[in-house]
Structures are given as C-alpha cells and as structure tokens.
Amino acid sequence: MSKNARPAILEVGGMTCEDCARHVTTALEAVGAQDVSVAWRAGEARLSVPEGLAEAALRAAVEGAGYRPGPLRLLGAGTPGDAAAGSADYDLVVVGAGSAAFAAAIKATEAGYKVALVEHGTLGGTCVNVGCVPSKALLRAGELAWAAGHHPFAGLSTSSGPVDLGALVAQKDELVGQLRQMKYAELVEAYGFAVVPGHGRFIGPDVLEVDGRSLRGRVYLVATGASPAVPPVPGLAAAGYLTSTSALQLTEVPKRLVVIGANAIGLELGQFFLHIGSQVTFIDVAERIAPFEEPEVSAALASVLTGEGATVHVGAQVLGVRRDKDHLDVTVSVGERHLGLVADEILVATGRRPNTEGLGLEQAGVKVDRRGAVVVDEELRTANPRIFGAGDVTGAPQFVYVSAYEGALAVDNALLGAGRKVDFTGLPRVTFTSPQVASAGLTEAQAAESGFEVETSVLPLAAVPRALVNHDTHGLVKLVAEAGTGRLLGASFLAEGAGDVVQSAVLAIRHGITTAELAATFHPYLTMAEALKLASQTFTRDVDKLSCCAA
User: Fold this and answer.
1) Does residue 445 register a pLDDT over 70?
2) Which of 393, 413, 411 is nearest to 114 (CA)?
3) I need a labelling partner for 222 at 20 to 30 A (CA). Which of 86, 340, 374, 398 fits?
4) Catalytic: which of 15, 184, 220, 241?
5) Catalytic annotation on 113?
6) Do 88 and 220 have their domain in common?
7) SS3 assignment for 65-79
C-alpha cells in the first residue's frame, strides 16, 4: 500500500465463483486500485485506494467487468492519530509479542500497515513458552504413565515404573523451541513486521520509550499478558514456592506436593504430579474445587482425584509456611480445624495478574482497575483513544484463543474503523485434567442471575455407550436450557475428550439451537459426542429405556 492510499471495502454483487473474483480483481487493478483481494462468497473486494482515485472509477470498473458495485467503505476514517500519521514511525505499535500481539500484527500487516512489536522477554508470550504448549505436553505424559498402571481391562498386563522427569522436561523444551520458531519467529520474517527488543513504557499520550529510544505510532496496542499471582501468605516467600512457570522446569518428582488453588491451573498441574508419583494435597479457599464450573462437575472431579489418591481441602486457608531443613511445614485452617501439612514443594496456583507495572500507563492516560488490568470498552479502546488493549492484560478470559481474537478485533477497530464489539457468547473453556472438564455458555447459576427461567438435565457417563466400552464412567454432562423455548444456554462436560465434544455445544449456543433440535441431530454411535444427544433427550425422555442409537 502506498503512503497516501486508504484501505477500503467495495461491495460487489453478481459473483458466483473464483473466476468472477479474478475478473473483478483485474478490473480494479486496471484503474489503479492496489492490494486488491476479492472474496466472491462474501461479495466484497478489499483494496487500497490511492489518493486521487475516484470512487466512480472503481464502480465503473466493476460494472465494465459485468458485476454490480455496491457501497464503498473507506476504512480507518477518523482513526485517532491520522493527523499525525506523517510523524509516526509505525501505523501500529504493539507492546508485547504473544498471541494477541501476533494476531494484531498479522491482521494489520495484511491490510498494508507498518507494524512494530515491542518485547523485552521471549518471543511468543505465555502460551507457547510457559503455558498451554509445555503444560499439555507434560499432562499427556502423566496420563499415559497413570494409565499404564491403572487400566480397567481384563487380560492386559501393564506396569508403570519411575518417571524420568528430566527427560520429559527436555523433550517438552524441544517441542516449545520448535513451535516458537515455527509459529512466531518465522512469521516475523514471513509477514515483514518489526520486532523491537527492549522494555516499552509510555512517556506521554502518544510516545512509547523503548530502552531510551522514542517510538511513535499512529495507534498503540497494549498486549503484555499476565503472570502468576502469589497470595500474601506469611512465610511463603522466604520458604520458597513453585508457580505454573517454574513447576514446568522441575527435573525431580517431589515426594509430597501441596497445591494452593484448585482451579484450572492448579488442578491440571497437581494431577500431573499425582500421576507421576507425588503425594498431592489440594487446598482452596472456595467451598469446592473448580469453583467456576457446575457444582455437579466439581463434585465428580473431586471424587476422581481422591480416588487416585489425592487429598482435597476446600473452604480452607493457608495460615503460614515455614521451611524446616529438608521440608516445608504448611499450616492450614479448615473450618474450626487447624492442620499441619508437610511438603517437599508448594505449587501456588491462585490466579494471574495483568502485566501492567512499569508501562507508564498513567502518563499515557490509560486507566487500570484495582487488579491492575487495563480498562477497555466493548471495542477494546482505553481511556486514551489512540491506545487499545487486548488479551490477558485487560482481564479478559485467559485463553489463548480469546487473546488472538481480541488482537485481531483491536486492529479492525483501531486501523480499519470497523466498530466491532467483543462477543463471548458460547465461549468454551477447557480444564485438561483426566477426565477433561469442558464448558460453554452459562452455568445454571449464571443463567438464573441473568434473569432466565431454566430447565436442566444431568446425564451420568454410565448412560453413555462410549464410556461403558471404555470401562470408565467417571463423569457427566449437564445442559442448561431456557424454559419454554428449550434454547440451549449452557453445557458442561466431565469426560474423556470433553474439550472436543464441547464445540458442538458452542455452535448450538451461538446459533440459538434448542435441546429438541440437538436430540434430533445425528450423533455417531460409540463416540463421546453422543453424550450431547443423550443429554438433550433427557429433557423429554428416559434414556435408560431407549435402545442403542434410539432416536
């Protein structure tokens, strides 16, 4: 895109195939349009309009090719900073280099804008380096180690010996390095945006300083992510502890592990160490583990963990920690009782805090909330109209796919003037325990708080043929539907492969599908996906009285 060109979208009617798209592309390029990309199914042409090229010429070109030109929409109109564009080093400057940052950089670069990412740490952010990728690689190893010594099938002789955690961690680190190179480092070169190493901080409403160098952007995106939060437990800092980051680097299996926090991260990593030989105790201040899930899911998962040998204390508070030679003494209150626990390691998994310290947000006029999260509106704009925020740093749901979604949406609004609003309808969440927890939409309590009258169904996995043939019926499905209409509002699964099954529920929730429609939909027999159909049938039928595959 030339310096004075404006990105735009021209609606085009009458296109029916790729040949049509090529004809329109050729016609628009012939009159001077740049960066033309035509999507015939969407009925639109994305292009850059150089200064002096009239809309009439574009419309005439489309008509001459035999198609119907619709409205032309110039993007980026009124974008904050347009008047200062000539003095800017980049159209978009992103602080951070994780999933939100890369999604934004790719989207903006594809639209022809000049982009820079400022990063003082490791390229790729949390997910690929110390989050999703390394943890799930280790979790899978733990599942296999546990299954080798605890399978339910007659006639099979298997065993699980000691785990070489150092070898597992080395393999995990190799995978992380490969993916960081493939999915981040190589993309920088492929797309051609800049990565500026160093710590970025705002020194004014429109200037970012990077290690003493001033960097100016037409617009900015803060996408610095979040880090493990540590509660102020007396003695904890002096005694030493693990976080979700440092726990992934252990090379020796701790004999006794206390996990403070029994939400997704604590449950995943705690069960991993349980599976490879640690004696694990979970502690949570809430009245149940997985406190944001349905109560039935929490209870069933707690049963699984205790059945595997874990100890679970809920409604509990850690009063203090003390190091005593080669072990840690942990004092816990559970109701009226005080317990003394002994541990070799303590894993703190009590949430994550936004990475906003040292960014100079006050100097930029950007507001943060009491937790330090960047405050944004529905279009991800901060109190400074030239600065946007995306991902974990804003307090959004902390999933990598949410960060990527928000990074791209922020560019749509900041540079392309799209006016899109964040929409989390049907957002899925997965906890990668074994069995997995997966949910989408509203829980029963959330639906009631939102003013819905609801009906629910709870289907134990003992009613699901796939679970029966697996000889593993630990788990359930719970559906929440709007009373009267039957519209699906929420779905929760505790089952093998729940993270895959939940996607059907995501689509149903987003598109207003009812439980009756789900019950009438084909679901392949002897898959866990069939559990969604069976749970939908339970609103009107007793599935125990149906034959296999009964409609």
Assistant:
1) yes
2) 411
3) 86
4) 15
5) no
6) yes
7) CCCEEEEEEECCCCC
Catalytic residue among 1, 90, 113, 132: 132
Tokens of 262: 């029994």
**Residue 284, strand partner residues:** 314
**DSSP label at 315?**
S
Burial 156-175 (b: 16+ CB within 10 A, else e): eeeebeebebeebbeebeee
195-249 pLDDT, tens digit each: 999 999 999 999 999 999 999 999 999 999 999 999 999 999 999 999 999 999 9
549 belongs to the catalytic site: yes
CA-to-CA dists, residue 355 to 129, 211, 217, 226, 244, angstroms: 16, 18, 21, 5, 16
Among the listed residues 127, 184, 220, 241, the single catalytic one is 127
> pLDDT tens digit string along 134-181?
999 999 999 999 999 999 999 999 998 999 999 999 999 999 999 999
Q: 3-state DSSP call for residue 43? A: coil
> Which residue in the block uniquely carries the two structure tokens 């009245």?
287
Q: Cα(487)–Cα(471) distance, rounded to whole angstroms?
A: 33
- 67 catalytic? Reply is yes
Q: What is the CATH number of the domain that holds 343?
A: 3.50.50.60
User: Model pTM?
Assistant: 0.86
Sequence-ordered list of residues with C-beta below 8 angstroms from that of 225, at least 6 positions apart, any chain: 96, 98, 100, 125, 126, 354, 355, 391, 392, 393, 403
Neighbours of 203 (CB within 10 A): 12
Task: Determine contact, residues 138/168, Cβ cutoff 8 Å.
Answer: yes
- Taking the alpha carbons at both ends of the chain, their separation in whole angstroms is 57
Q: Tell me, yes or no, if 132 is annotated catalytic.
A: yes
Among residues 72, 63, 65, 57, which one has the least CA distance to residue 10?
72
Given 1, 20, 191, 401, the catalytic residue: 20
SS3 (DSSP) at 38: strand
Q: Does 184 participate in catalysis according to the annotation? A: no
Whether 248 contacts 176, CB under 8 Å: no
Residue found by looking up tokens 């049907």 in the block: 426
Residue 494, classed as helix, strand or coil, is strand
Tell whether 362 and 345 lie within a shared domain.
no
Q: Is there a single domain that holds both residue 437 and residue 408?
A: no
Are 488 and 513 in contact by the 8 Å Cβ rule? The answer is yes
Q: How many distinct structural domains can be found in the chain?
A: 4
Does the residue 384 lie in any domain? yes
- Whole-angstrom CA distances from 144 to 157, 159, 458 are 15, 11, 29
Does a structural domain hold residue 147?
Answer: no
